[in-house]
Amino acid sequence: MRFFLRRGLFYVITFWAAVTINFFIPRIMPGDPVRALIARNQGRIPSEAEASLRILFGLDQDTTLWQQYLDYWALLFRGDLGISFTYFPTPVSDVIAQALPWTIGLVGIATILSFTIGTLLGTGIGWRRGTWADSLLPISTFFSAVPYFWLALIAITIFSVTLGWFPASGSYDRSLIPMWSWEFVGSVIYYGTLPALTIVISSISGWILGMRNMMVTVSSEDYVTVAQAKGLSERAVMFGYAARNAILPQVSSFALSLGFIVGGTLVMEIVFSYQGIGYLLFTAVAAKDYPLMQGIFLVITVAVLIANIVADIAYGILDPRTRQEG
After folding, report:
1. Which is higher by pLDDT, 55 or 249?
2. How far is the C-alpha of 34 from the C-alpha of 292, rounded, in Å?
3. Which residues contact 103 (CB under 8 A, 6 or more apart)?
């Protein structure tokens, strides 16, 4: 219990520090977002409304920075992330809610596929080390070493431009109305296949290599030798004894990678013009949309912290040695 209490206190302090940094960074960045908003909306927003907009966005120059900080925490506790400059007057929470499912659906499915395929391949390669299966490692490592944006551009050139199998950009056919229908769902899968494929290819090497190395280490343990001496089948020993213990670090890494799903793959969403959180963050930075940037950073931070908590709990349950005092 003390282990979980210590970890819980650590995450509370981490969350406070992340929110504090999230509050101060946009305010020390150069530029005036309110004047930029008025300049982008000339004719619709009069210059006389500058003072009112500063109060609306919590940037009132007559209010001290400490009071703005306290007001920011009060808004967070009410679930109010502010109003987006770019999509004014839409609340930030609504803008993020529209983009978040696209990123979770695409990057989440790709991450799960990459973890599952990579772990299974790593199990087989590590168990049969020294055979022809080891020749797969340099190939997978080569693809993971290729810059992601370059791999995405190669995929677009081959599968979109040359072969014409998949679209080069977008998240669904714009002629369709978003709704729960087979036609729309099929369009989403069709447009998301190429981005998902590039994510799997670029990230699968890490899962293969990590599981392979752990399998090599675990396969020399005494309990594996005893299981083989009992006459158990090779499949039972490999999955029931070796892989069961070798997968522990993989589970922890997988839980952490789930937290970064919310952040999406920024470069991938920019290259494919995919309407996820990563692309939304790119547009927010370009437009100096501080409330939207703060909201996205906060959502990503919370997701990573929750993933860390899940990883600690899962690892503490799977391996009780981590809960023991030194």
Report:
1. 249
2. 14
3. 261, 262, 263, 264, 269, 276, 277, 278
C-alpha 96/C-alpha 262 separation (Å) is 11
- pTM of the predicted protein model: 0.73
Asked if 124 and 217 count as a contact pair (C-beta separation under 8 A), the reply is no
CA–CA distance, 17 with 79 (Å, rounded to integer)? 18
Domain end among 31, 46, 77 = 77
- Please say whether the beta carbons of 189 and 171 come within 8 A: no
Q: Which amino acid is at 159?
A: F
CATH number of the structural domain spanning residue 139: 1.10.3720.10
Cα 31 to the chain's mean position, in Å? 29
Percent of the chain with pLDDT strictly greater than 70 = 82
| Per-residue tokens: 283 | 């547009």
Residue 320 in any domain: the answer is: no
Residue 321 belongs to some domain of the structure: no
- pLDDT tier at 326 (50, 70, 90 boundaries)? very low
